[in-house]
Amino acid sequence: MLTPELLHGLRNLALAARRAAEGFLNGAHASRRHGAGMEFSQYRPYQPGDDLRRLDWRLAARSDRYYLREAEVDTSLTVHLLLDASASMNHRDDNGLTKLGYARLLLAALAYLAQQQGDAVGLTILAPAGLRHLPARADARQLPRIYHALETVEAQGHFPDPATLAPLTARRERALTVCVSDLYEEGTEISALLAQLRAVSGEVLLLHVLANNELEFTYEGNITFKDLETGRSLQLDADQQRPAYQEQLGRWLHNTAQSARRQGFDYHQLNTSQPLDGALREFLRRRNSAG
């Protein structure tokens, strides 16, 4: 099992992306048994190191099994990756990994999967000082560009204002948009952006990243919390506040998921202590239906 800590410990984003993507595909294949009498004469099982451009994504999404086609087919599309780089993404889990660090690993693995399939993949980093945008491309040099942008990004400030975000929705371009964010917002600025992107681009997959220590509220005793974006601090007794916190968090997560789906987004919650497999599987399913 390739945990986020192990991938982060490689200190090499390109290697971590490849290990995560190929480990996911190989693990999913190995965990399934073939039904009696099933014949796939035009396929062969995926093996680590195989060219992912020959992977039959439609069959994988239907059966959760991974096979290569004997003959390639053109199923490419445009994948637009969005990273929320506001300061709240600096929140650190008990495993030492920040939300931003987890998002780096995930987006690098998604870019690798998309590029190997022949998709044009782009990246936009959403920062208050301005957008860092890599237009979608399918050439061999795109992955190093994306890895470099992810490796050098720093989370700071608030989520960008509408004027900063305007270039993202100015042009209609059919794409699968994948947004990684902790959804920390003052109002509805993140969901408003995604609603606009769905209107001009099509499919939106929202990957909601949360740290395990905030999901489980693992803190104990008297503790001071500091808002990473406003600087405000709050002192409380963690043991005393735990039941109320968990009840309020559960209500917020339920409402957030419902609201996202009402707006037509595919929503998936992530935990920074868990492997990337769930998010990679959601991407595969959404990619199949969008292609």
TrEMBL record:
<dbReference type="Pfam" id="PF01882">
    <property type="entry name" value="DUF58"/>
</dbReference>
<feature type="domain" description="DUF58">
    <location>
        <begin position="42"/>
        <end position="248"/>
    </location>
</feature>
<dbReference type="InterPro" id="IPR002881">
    <property type="entry name" value="DUF58"/>
</dbReference>
<protein>
    <submittedName>
        <fullName>DUF58 domain-containing protein</fullName>
    </submittedName>
</protein>
<dbReference type="InterPro" id="IPR036465">
    <property type="entry name" value="vWFA_dom_sf"/>
</dbReference>
